[in-house]
Amino acid sequence: MSTHGTLTGKIALVTGASRGIGRAIALRFAAEGALVVATGRRMGQSGDEPNTLAETVAQIKRQGGQAIALAADLDDPAQRDNLISRAASAAGGLDILVNNAGIAEYSPIESMPLDMFDRTIEHYLRVPFVLSRAAIPLMRARGGGAILNLGSVTALSPTRPYNAFDIAGGVTVYAAVKAAVNRFTEGLAAELLADNIAVNSVGPSTAILTPGSERYIPEGYPTEPVEYLVETALALCRVPASERTGAVAHSLHFPLEQGLQVRTLDAQGTLPAPVIPPYAHPALGRPGAAQQ
């Protein structure tokens, strides 16, 4: 696999890497030379079993990249608390942490079970907190690093008049936690600037079809290719904190603002420049308006 090598020598831990956005980020980071520690619940028995870490690692290795599979159930406090040390031990250190894992559950507030509320907080706020806290001293010892949190366009305020998704979609709690993730990102960026640890967030500008999101996306809805988000993720993890930290980026807007050439997940091909569709959230405004 021919790479551009922007992450050569780096070790990246990607959570939720058995499928969807996590797998796509793992593939692209490996294509740029990183040793990827792919973690998720499902290890799998072979590289042919779908939606498993074994399949992710096999795909990376077929393309000439380096990867390690590390099974972990982040709902289990013991597995969650020792994941960073296990990953660093297996790979020889840690330079990049991608907090991607999560299982979105939507429900109107009135009918939402308390355990669903608690799981949403656990998946999208407690896990990034616990993993980031453990990763900071390891990155500091290596002279810097990058923490990337997965955001969501739902973190932005609902538009008026309210659309059908906001009225009936039950997204309120998920969206509120994703808004908290963005503020967590911005605050942690300030805390770690002097340590050269960049902390950024990336979310879709519209919607990306994944095994986890497909049940919430109406049939025929024009979703965006995952490659635009992945290229943004790469850009946010390959520069020092002094150049970019505390950004809340969105997948279509950021590449346009930065003039990025968006590549395929194996880095061998290119995609056209993104087009901002008319149904994108108006608060994003012109390309890059949400960037810092």
Secondary structure layout:
Elements: E1 11-15, H1 20-31, E2 35-40, H2 53-62, E3 66-71, H3 77-91, E4 96-99, H4 114-141, E5 145-150, H5 164-168, H6 172-192, E6 197-203, H7 226-237, E7 248-250, H8 253-258
Parallel strand pairs: 1-2, 1-4, 2-3, 4-5, 5-6, 6-7
Family: Belongs to the short-chain dehydrogenases/reductases (SDR) family.
InterPro entries: KR_dom, NAD(P)-bd_dom_sf, SDR_fam
Organism: Ralstonia soli
Would you give an account of this structure?
With 292 residues, the chain is an alpha/beta fold. The protein has a single domain (11-284), classed as NAD(P)-binding Rossmann-like Domain (Rossmann fold, 3-Layer(aba) Sandwich). 37% of the residues lie in helices and 13% in strands. It contains 8 helices and 7 strands; from the N terminus they run βαβαβαβαβααβαβα. Strands 3-2-1-4-5-6-7 form a 7-stranded parallel sheet, sandwiched between helices. Strand 6, helix 7 and strand 7 form a beta-alpha-beta unit. The longest helix has 28 residues, at 114-141. It starts with 10 loop residues before the first strand and ends in a 34-residue tail after the last helix. The model is unreliable at 287-292 (pLDDT under 50). This is SDR family NAD(P)-dependent oxidoreductase. Belongs to the short-chain dehydrogenases/reductases (SDR) family.
